[in-house]
Design brief:
55% of the residues lie in helices and 7% in strands. With 293 residues, it is α+β, with helices and mostly antiparallel strands.
């Protein structure tokens, strides 16, 4: 089975799609696919579909959606090549792929691929490379992880409470990986190459402190001190207006370092930020500490 949720939902068995077009069965499949090989409780599925206000027929209706999914799985299984040998195992049935368990349902991936699991594997390897000081390796691994995203998670799925929460979690993980990939590229001296990307990102995430700090550094290292200071002032205005907060001390120190440094002079490590900067979750959730030198 191939499961893709980091963009348009696509679940395939034997190369055939088992994703329904109807919104609610599609919701059910999305939640089962995200938690493939784990039992998803009936209560979680009902909450996803009806947001705490299920009809009296909720369980019966959910069973109908499961049957619709199994019909699609049955069609996909017909394309399965029979196993060779004198005693081949029995052909799988739809109930073997979408299993009814006590209290819930489980989508069995059969060891197939999942873009979420691959993203988490590559991002984890990238973080370990960062911690080991392997910045080229970290940049490469995190680029590979981020390339798995083709859009917002569950981009074409009607999301309820459960999927909305999972989509936010995945987006926070993506931002974390993006933050660390940019940091690795800064460590590698790719500040000029980063400027177009950071211009877009700081506009898209106007209160993301790490991205703004990285943009300030990239601009300063490109000899554009005035623009680096403008980035700080825009961030400060947004934080004060929208959140009633001043920029944290680390960003104020970075601003002061840029003010006193010559435009063409790279900031020394001791003039910038602490080696490890915790990021307040109230401001930017899901980000790892920012390391800058």
């Amino acid at each position: 089975m191939r499961i893709d949720v980091l963009g348009i939902l696509d679940v395939r068995e034997n190369g055939a799609s088992i994703a329904p077009t109807a919104p609610k069965p599609r919701q059910v499949l999305a939640l089962l696919a995200l938690h493939a090989d784990q039992v998803v409780p009936v209560s979680a599925l009902i909450d996803e579909l009806w947001a705490g206000r299920p009809p009296r027929s909720a369980r019966t209706t959910l069973q109908t959606y499961v049957l619709q999914l199994r019909d699609l799985i049955t069609l996909a299984l017909k394309k399965e090549t029979p196993a060779a040998g004198p005693c081949p195992p029995p052909r799988r049935r739809a109930k073997d792929v979408l299993v009814t368990s006590p209290g819930g349902y489980m989508l069995v991936s059969g060891g197939g691929a999942s873009d979420v699991r691959e993203f988490e594997r590559l991002a984890g390897m990238g973080y370990r490379a960062m911690d080991a000081g392997d910045f080229p390796g970290a940049s490469r691994l995190l680029c590979e992880a981020l390339a798995l995203w083709t859009g917002s998670a569950f981009a074409d799925v009607q999301t309820g409470a459960q999927l909305e929460m999972e989509a936010r979690r995945l987006e926070e993980s993506r931002l974390c990986a993006l933050d660390q990939r940019i940091e690795a590229d800064l460590r590698l001296g790719r500040h000029r190459e980063l400027l177009p990307e950071l211009t877009v990102l700081t506009s898209r995430y106007p209160t993301h402190e790490n991205l703004h700090a990285q943009f300030m550094l990239a601009l300063h290292r490109s000899g554009r001190r005035g623009e680096a200071l403008d980035v700080y002032h825009r961030l400060r205005s947004t934080l004060v207006r929208d959140l009633g907060l001043e920029p944290p001390a680390r960003l104020r120190r970075l601003q002061q370092s840029i003010l006193i440094a010559a435009p063409e002079t790279p900031l020394a490590a001791e003039q910038q930020m602490p080696a490890t900067v915790p990021l307040p979750s109230a401001r930017v959730a899901g980000a790892r500490p920012l390391h800058v030198n």
